[in-house]
């Protein structure tokens, strides 16, 4: 070996990390001196401790000490070593964002994902949208620490970001192909997202955060780390409070309050076993609700949304008072998990959990809206959709390995789920001061109940060939689902009077059959890999789908026996170098789904068969240049509806989406890019560019007169800035989102896809938003 190269390698291995190195930063700064500048290029193959390739030292012409930058997260940025399409959002990536950012927001960094919200830093309620590879968020699987999240269906759905404080988030694992064998979820047709929370530290400590920004945004957070209480036992507890208002409205009424508590304890045993317990409590009181708008009203004035923000004492105006609306709720989740080594190199993993939600969807009506309320035409009635869900589940997995050909896993998941929804109307008595309403319901228009059982079984194995150069992962899953639906009070007419209320019932009992999943990874050399994969995916029966087929108990509905399915193919190539990594992957997805469409003037629904074909290309790139770092994630895709039973113009007999037309709410192109500059170990500057092309909006119903016109939502380019300065225990920062103050539509409500009467269901994006923050850790 070249003696200069040998000297350089030894020096780099022995050199301790500078004390000025920033923990959890995107780059590490190292100083290398007195090394000749003729170091051979072989140095790029020296692996660093985190698995990235170490950079060769940079030497000036006088052999002086030169600062070099080692870019972290090169492998995670492209999913290096993953058999399938896979991206990891690391703790270093998350540090770009301010304290309290929604976990939804950080998903913008992943190719194939389009994220939007009326809040500049993401949301966890009605106005948050996530699309992946041509599918909405109710077709994406979500989990927290491997615990299944439940369905994200609008209304009483479960949103994963409510189950942890984002300051306790350590990484996000994203599999765009949904090919992960055994991932527990009800709805992973397009992909799987797993949020991982941090474990407690071995050292006692206290972390605190405060923040203040536009739209009266305020945050306070504190975390207590116990350190090691006993051998192998440690824990933490955190509490936070967040306040905000609707951002795009001038002087909106009300304030949204979010209180959150996380607790986690870990016990590690000498034999390698561990035991974990985690509990999360989330309470949202929403009194500054975001609304949906029509495209015409947005183009006329992007700072209004149809709600009013002052009390006029005119019921016809005050029925739109913002503080009446919103989705207040309480979310709780607890789990206990354990890992136990067994004889013969076998490992047993078990998780048991409970997730519970109580919430409401708020609305207001004038008394004459419903026949039963006639005579009170000048009174405002408050409508409340009360949601209740309770999920209990158990997961178990056995895994082991024996040589190159067997690295196996077998496991299962069982969950019981109960959900209730009740719609009541109350007379408002003192809405300005206390939002009081009478304790006795004047009308109950629906009372819905679901009892759901889900079972998942899987088996997988990974085999290595050619000294590990070729890896093949293969396996099968089997999903079984049954649902009982009962609605003792259910109205099928506009008047909703008692004589038109029936007891509606229905059932679903379906299984996926055997779902094959295959992935292969071939390493051309230590820095270049190609991969390919195929997976057939299925989703359990959604609550609205069972509801849509319901009928009065005297004439039971048609039981559901088919699951939504997709077939997904991936092909890609990855390359990593000393200071860069790049991944290019293509995908094709064919889906067969059922959507529950609202029937105008009733509370009932109609199931509409739908298919879609999606294909596209994704690129991920990360580069270090001196003190600079660049990250890019981009997607070009095409999503088209594929319908059967259409007429000569491609129009279905029911619903309004059209054969071979663009999928509603899915942009064909999107790009996220971050450029960061770190002139010292303390100071970091960064900027982002987020680009989304135009997308299909509302399609006029071809079978209904005066149903509107076809609409297209314009694309947008958003710029962001970040600056942070860190000392030994303090960090100060400022973030600016939507720097140029663009007016734009952030997303489309899902009803646009399934309801012929839902024209004008768009969310307004956040304007320019400033946020300053401070962190301290002792």
UniProtKB/TrEMBL annotation:
InterPro entries registered for this protein in UniProt: Beta-barrel_TonB (IPR000531), Plug_dom (IPR012910), Plug_dom_sf (IPR037066), TonB-dep_rcpt-like (IPR039426)
Pfam annotation, one family: Plug
All residue ranges annotated as the TonB-dependent receptor plug domain in the record: 88-177
Record's bilayer topology term: Multi-pass membrane protein
Record's keyword terms, sorted: Cell outer membrane, Membrane, Receptor, Signal, TonB box, Transmembrane, Transmembrane beta strand, Transport
A GO cellular component entry from the record: cell outer membrane
Domain of life (superkingdom): Bacteria
Protein location: Cell outer membrane
Coiled coil: none
Signal peptide (UniProt feature, chain positions): 1-25
Ranges where the TonB-dependent receptor-like beta-barrel domain occurs: 291-739
Principal subcellular localisation of the protein: membrane
Keyword NADP: no
The family this protein is said to belong to: Belongs to the TonB-dependent receptor family.
Name of this chain's protein: TonB-dependent receptor plug domain-containing protein
Originating species: Undibacterium jejuense
Lineage, highest ranks first: Bacteria, Pseudomonadati, Pseudomonadota, Betaproteobacteria, Burkholderiales
């Amino acid at each position: 070996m070249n003696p200069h190269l040998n000297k350089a390698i030894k020096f780099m291995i022995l050199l301790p990390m500078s004390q000025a190195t920033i923990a959890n930063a995107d780059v590490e700064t190292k100083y290398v001196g007195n090394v000749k500048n003729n170091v051979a290029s072989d140095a790029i193959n020296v692996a660093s401790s985190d698995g990235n390739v170490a950079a060769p030292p940079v030497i000036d012409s006088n052999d002086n000490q030169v600062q070099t930058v080692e870019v972290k997260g090169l492998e995670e940025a492209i999913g290096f070593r993953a058999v399938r399409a896979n991206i990891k959002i690391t703790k270093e990536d998350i540090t770009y964002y301010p304290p309290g950012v929604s976990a939804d927001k950080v998903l913008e960094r992943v190719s194939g994902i389009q994220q939007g919200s009326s809040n500049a830093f993401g949301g966890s309620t009605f106005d948050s949208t996530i699309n992946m590879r041509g599918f909405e968020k109710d077709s994406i699987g979500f989990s927290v620490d491997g615990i299944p999240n439940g369905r994200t269906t609008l209304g009483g759905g479960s949103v994963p970001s409510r189950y942890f404080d984002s300051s306790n988030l350590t990484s996000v694992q994203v599999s765009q192909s949904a090919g992960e064998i055994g991932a527990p979820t009800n709805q992973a047709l397009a992909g799987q997202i797993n949020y991982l929370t941090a474990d407690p530290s071995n050292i006692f400590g206290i972390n605190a955060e405060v923040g203040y920004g536009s739209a009266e945004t305020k945050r306070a957070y504190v975390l207590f780390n116990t350190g090691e209480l006993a051998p192998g036992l440690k824990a933490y507890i955190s509490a936070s409070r967040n306040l905000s208002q609707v951002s795009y409205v001038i002087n909106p009424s009300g304030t949204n309050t979010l209180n959150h508590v996380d607790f986690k304890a870990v016990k590690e045993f000498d034999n390698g076993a561990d035991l974990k317990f985690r509990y999360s409590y989330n309470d949202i009181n929403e009194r500054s609700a975001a609304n949906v708008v029509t495209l015409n009203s947005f183009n006329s004035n992007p700072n209004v949304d149809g709600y009013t923000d002052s009390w006029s004492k005119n019921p016809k105006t005050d029925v739109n008072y913002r503080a009446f609306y919103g989705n207040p709720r309480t979310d709780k989740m607890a789990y206990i998990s354990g890992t136990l080594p067994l004889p013969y190199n076998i490992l047993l993993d078990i998780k048991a959990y409970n997730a519970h939600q109580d919430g409401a969807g708020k609305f207001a009506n004038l008394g004459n809206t419903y026949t039963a309320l006639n005579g009170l035409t000048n009174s405002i009635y408050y409508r409340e959709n009360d949601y209740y869900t309770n999920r209990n589940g158990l997961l178990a997995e056995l895994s082991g390995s024996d040589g190159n050909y067997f690295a196996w896993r077998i496991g299962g998941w069982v969950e019981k789920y109960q959900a209730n929804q009740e719609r009541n109307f109350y007379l408002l008595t003192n809405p300005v001061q206390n939002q009081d309403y009478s304790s006795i319901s004047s009308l109950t228009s629906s009372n819905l109940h679901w009892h759901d059982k889900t079972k998942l079984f899987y088996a997988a194995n990974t085999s290595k060939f050619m000294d590990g150069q070729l890896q093949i992962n293969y396996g099968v899953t089997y999903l079984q689902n049954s649902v009982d639906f009962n609605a003792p009070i259910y109205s099928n007419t506009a008047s909703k009077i008692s004589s038109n209320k029936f007891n509606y019932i229905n059932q679903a009992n379906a299984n996926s059959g055997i779902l094959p999943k295959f992935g292969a990874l071939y390493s051309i050399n230590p820095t270049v890999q190609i991969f390919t994969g195929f997976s057939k995916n299925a989703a359990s029966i959604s609550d609205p789908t069972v509801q849509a087929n319901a009928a009065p108990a005297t004439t039971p509905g048609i039981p559901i026996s088919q699951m939504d399915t997709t077939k997904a193919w991936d092909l890609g190539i990855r390359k990593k170098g000393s200071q860069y990594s790049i991944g290019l992957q293509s995908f094709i997805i064919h889906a067969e789904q059922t959507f529950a469409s609202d029937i105008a003037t009733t509370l009932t629904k109609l199931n509409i068969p739908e298919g879609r074909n999606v294909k596209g290309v994704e690129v991920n790139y990360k580069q270090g240049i001196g003190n600079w770092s660049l990250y890019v994630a981009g997607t070009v895709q095409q999503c088209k509806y594929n319908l059967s039973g259409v007429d000569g113009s491609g129009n279905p007999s029911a619903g309004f989406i059209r054969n071979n037309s663009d999928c509603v709410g899915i942009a064909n192109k999107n790009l996220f890019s971050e450029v960061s500059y770190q002139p010292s170990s303390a100071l970091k500057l960064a900027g982002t560019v987020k680009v989304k092309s135009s997308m299909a909006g509302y399609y006029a119903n071809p079978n209904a007169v005066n149903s509107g016109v076809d609409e297209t939502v314009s694309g947008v380019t958003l710029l962001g800035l970040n600056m942070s300065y860190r000392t030994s225990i303090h960090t100060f920062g400022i973030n600016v989102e939507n720097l140029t103050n663009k007016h734009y539509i952030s997303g489309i409500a899902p009803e646009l896809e399934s309801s012929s009467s839902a024209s004008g269901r768009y969310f307004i994006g956040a304007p320019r938003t400033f946020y300053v923050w401070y962190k301290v850790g002792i």
